[in-house]
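Q: Convert this sequence to structure tokens.
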Amino acid sequence: MEKKLYKTETHLHCGETSGCSLVTGDEFVRRYKEEGFSTIFVSDHYNRKWFCDCETREDYDIAVEKQLRGYRTAKAEGDRIGLQVLLSCELNIDGNDYLFYGIDEEFFYDKSIGYMTPHELFDFCNERGYTLI
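A:
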């Protein structure tokens, strides 16, 4: 019996959201599909500056929309061509990068995320079933 190989990208930044990438989510999806990948995680940087100055729910909704732009572009293309696109996130605290897995879009509506200590993040993730590495 032949083993099936599953190729997965676990840390990808899209140009729509993360300043460290020039490639859009839909272009990444096409490239990874061509290379035989079955799954990618979009791990765009959590952008504190988009969230910190929010005074109203509308402001926060706009910040969340910006944060999810790359993921949503990638997800739409992945759904179209048959590549699984999952949401993750990278957050820097005190010079250390943390990756969140198992999150959904609602994750970004918790206003305290950008202000937590690493210990608080660990507890936050454990309570909600997220994986933090």
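Residues 52 and 92 are 15 Å apart (CA to CA).
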